Amino acid sequence: MRAKYILRLDDACPTMDVAKWEKIEKICDKFLIRPIIAVIPNNKDKKLIKDHIDINFWNKVRSWQDKGWHVALHGYDHVDISNNSGLVQFNNQSEFAGVNFETQLEKIQKGISIFEREKIKTKIWVAPSHTFDQNTLKAIKLKTDIDIVCDGVSLNPFRKFGFKWLPQTLWHFRKMPFGLWTACIHPNEMIDREFDELEKFIQINAKHFVDIDKIKYKKWTVLNSLFSYFYWILRMVMRK
Fold it and tell me: d(Cα 198, Cα 194) in Å, to the nearest integer?
């Protein structure tokens, strides 16, 4: 099977770089791509103050939703309060992983309440810094209708811990021979060359981008275990 691709766009919030997000939106509209949009309900991360507060931000999110884009809950305030890596060990700082259950539950409740107030529906969890733990999943189960986690290292979508998982292992697109590849892209940090490269890749491979509504999830396989094992080894070697 040919490789399939999903575009994930992180850190949408009222102080995002509006001009850069508009560039991304034009590319997606041009090639009929329906990305995952990771929206921070109540951003307090000073590094994400890229522009003046956009008073039309939630109208924009609703317009994305109306176009069939997939809005994901991206934590609550995007501020790290622990040094725990959690279930997916990409980073060692977290808003959630290692934090007590009651605090996590409160954050999830507050975040989903803002979504509900703004008439945003979501079925997807995207953890800030890719860090979360079993308590995070428990809180999500209790307080939301979310059943998809966009994270994890695997060749294919899978089911685990009562959730459907969309693996996320790329931070920019490259041609792959097979498997499902979600690229986590941060529009706020992109430079002109990166927009051009993204548009060129999508133009060439547009027919291989899939909508998450059509994805099938299977049990974890030996192939996924092997891929995960070698992925982490390669990542460790490249860090040296």
Answer: 6
Per-residue DSSP letters for 76-103? SS----B---TTSTT-S-BSSTTS-HHH
Among residues 77, 76, 83, 75, the alpha carbon closest in space to that of 99 is found at 83
Spatial separation of the C-alpha atoms in residues 112 and 115, rounded to whole Å:
5
Q: Distance (Å, rounded) from C-alpha 71 to C-alpha 124?
A: 7
CA atoms of 64 and 116, how far apart (whole Å): 16
Which residues, at least 6 apart from 136, have a Cβ–Cβ distance to it below 8 Å?
86, 96, 97, 104, 108, 125, 127
The closest alpha carbon to 82, from 43, 39, 137, 129, belongs to 129
pLDDT per position in the chain (240 positions), as tens? Answer: 689 999 999 999 999 999 999 999 999 999 999 999 999 999 999 999 999 999 999 999 999 999 999 999 999 999 999 988 888 877 788 889 999 999 999 999 999 999 999 999 999 999 999 999 999 999 999 999 999 999 998 989 999 999 999 999 898 999 999 989 999 999 999 999 999 999 999 999 999 999 999 999 988 888 888 877 777 677 666 665
H or E element in which residue 158 lies: strand 158-160
Q: Which residues contact 118 (CB under 8 A, 6 or more apart)?
A: 58, 61, 62
> How far is the C-alpha of 74 from the C-alpha of 43, rounded, in Å?
10
146 DSSP assignment? -
User: Which residues on adjacent β-strands are paired with residue 22?
Assistant: none
